[in-house]
Design brief:
2 domains, single chain, Rossmann fold, 386 residues, seven-stranded parallel β-sheet, alpha/beta
C-alpha cells in the first residue's frame, strides 16, 4: 500500500464557530474579533456569528461572518432586548434568531465552538443559546465547546445565578478561556464559585492589540467614551476641563458611534477652539502612543490599548445599572500606579482638572508586566486541544 503523507494542502483546516452578542458597547465584539483573526491567521476556518448592531470593521474580512437580526439592550442595565429601532422584540423575532443560529451551526459543521460571555453573562440570550448547546451535544462528531470571558466578571446579586452557571459549565463546556493575566486579577475575585470549575479554567492573557504604528496626527490629551451611548457626561466634563486647564494643548474628544445626534451637536457647540470632537477615530490606538494623557472609561479593550501604548491614564469606570466590572479594573490599575481612577457618579470639572494636573506631573508608565498576548495564546490553546 502506498504511504500517505499528510501535507498542508490535504489536511482540512480546523473549523471554528464563534458566537458573540454585543448589547450596549462594542467591547465584546472587538475582543472576539481579535481572537477570531488570530485563529484565521493560524489557518483555521472561522465563522463568526454576531447578534448586535453592525459595526464597521468588525469582524474582520479574514473570517466568514453571519449576522443575526440585531438586538440591543433596551436599558442601560441590560434588563430587556430591543430591535435596531428600539422596539421590544417579540417571541416570533426570537424564534427566528434561534433558527438562524442553529442553521449557521449546521452549515459551519465546526470542530470547535466558542461562545463569548455565556453562561457567565448574556442570560438574555438563553432562548437561542440553550438550543445551541443541545445541538452541540447531539452532534456527531461532537465539537469541543469553550466559553470566552474577560478577566473581570459582573458580580451576580440574584441567588442561584452562579450555581446555574456552574451547572451549565459542568454539563456542556470543555473549557473556560479567561482572557486575563492571573497575576493582575484572578477569576475567583469576581466569581465566587470558581473552585467548582477550576479544572476547566485556562488563562490566556489579556486580548490586547499589537503595538500600533506612530500616528500621523498628534493630540496632547485624548478623551474617549467607548462605543456605547453612555459617555455623554464624561465628554461634557472634559470640555469644561479643557476650558480651564492645558489650553495650549490639543485635545481630541471621541464620543463613540452610538451617542445620539442631538447630544453630539450640543457638545460641539460648547467645545473650545483647542478641542476636536469626533465620533470615531480608526487610528485611536496610534494616537495614544503620542498622547500625554488619556481620559476614558475603563473598558477591557480601551485599557488594553492604554497598556500597549504606555500612556498616562485617567479612568472613569462605567457603573450605571449596577455594573461593577470597570470599577474593579480601574481600582486595580490605580493600585499598580498605571492610572488614576475617578467615580462616574458625581464627577465634576474640578475633580477632573485636579486629576489631570496630578497625572501630567507623573512620568509615563511605559511598558507593564501584564500579559497582553491573549489573542495568539487563545488560538494556540484551541488548536492544541484537537
Amino acid at each position: 500500500m502506498a504511504e500517505i503523507r499528510m501535507t498542508a494542502s490535504n489536511v482540512a483546516p480546523l473549523r471554528v464557530l464563534f458566537y458573540v452578542q454585543h448589547l450596549l458597547g462594542i467591547g465584546h465584539l472587538a475582543r472576539a474579533s481579535r481572537i477570531a483573526s488570530a485563529l484565521a491567521s493560524d489557518g483555521c476556518q472561522v465563522t463568526v456569528v454576531t447578534g448586535g448592531l453592525p459595526v464597521n470593521g468588525f469582524p474582520g474580512t479574514d473570517v466568514i461572518s453571519v449576522a443575526l437580526p440585531p438586538v440591543v439592550a433596551s436599558t442601560a442595565g441590560f434588563a430587556g432586548l430591543a430591535d435596531q429601532s428600539g422596539m421590544a422584540v417579540d417571541e416570533a423575532f426570537l424564534m427566528r434568531r434561534r433558527d438562524l443560529l442553529l442553521e449557521a451551526f449546521r452549515q459551519a459543521a465546526p470542530d470547535v465552538v466558542i461562545i463569548e460571555a455565556f453562561p457567565f453573562g448574556r442570560r438574555q440570550m438563553r432562548f437561542e443559546l440553550l438550543p445551541l448547546l443541545d445541538a452541540i451535544a447531539k452532534a456527531d462528531p461532537k465539537p469541543r465547546l469553550y466559553t470566552s470571558v474577560r478577566d473581570i466578571l459582573q458580580q451576580q446579586k440574584k441567588p442561584g445565578r452562579d450555581e446555574e452557571t456552574v451547572s451549565l459549565l459542568r454539563d456542556h463546556f470543555d473549557g473556560v478561556l479567561v482572557h486575563g493575566d492571573p497575576h493582575f486579577v484572578r477569576l475567583e475575585e469576581t466569581f465566587p464559585l470558581t473552585e467548582a470549575i477550576n479544572d476547566k479554567i485556562i488563562y490566556t492573557g489579556l486580548v490586547a492589540p499589537i503595538l500600533p504604528p506612530e500616528p500621523q496626527d498628534v493630540f496632547d490629551i485624548v478623551v474617549s467614551a467607548g462605543g456605547g451611548a453612555v459617555g455623554r457626561d464624561l465628554i461634557r466634563t472634559s470640555i469644561g476641563a479643557a476650558g480651564r486647564i492645558a489650553r495650549d494643548r490639543r485635545w481630541l474628544l471621541v464620543t463613540g458611534p452610538n451617542l445620539p445626534e442631538q447630544d453630539f451637536i450640543d457638545l460641539a457647540k460648547d467645545a473650545p477652539a483647542n478641542i476636536e470632537l469626533v465620533r470615531f477615530r480608526k487610528d485611536f490606538p496610534s494616537l495614544l502612543r503620542a498622547a500625554d494623557l488619556s481620559i476614558s472609561q475603563a473598558g477591557y479593550n480601551t485599557v488594553g490599548d492604554l497598556l500597549v501604548a504606555g500612556c498616562r491614564a485617567i479612568l472613569v469606570p462605567f457603573t450605571a445599572g449596577g455594573e461593577t466590572e470597570q470599577a474593579v479594573r480601574a481600582e486595580r490599575l490605580e493600585r499598580l500606579g498605571l492610572a488614576i481612577s475617578l467615580p462616574e457618579a458625581g464627577l465634576t470639572t474640578d475633580m477632573l482638572v485636579s486629576a489631570i494636573e496630578r497625572s501630567l506631573a507623573q512620568p509615563k508608565p511605559g511598558s507593564c508586566d501584564i500579559d497582553l498576548g491573549g489573542a495568539v495564546a487563545t488560538s494556540a490553546i484551541v488548536r492544541k486541544a484537537q
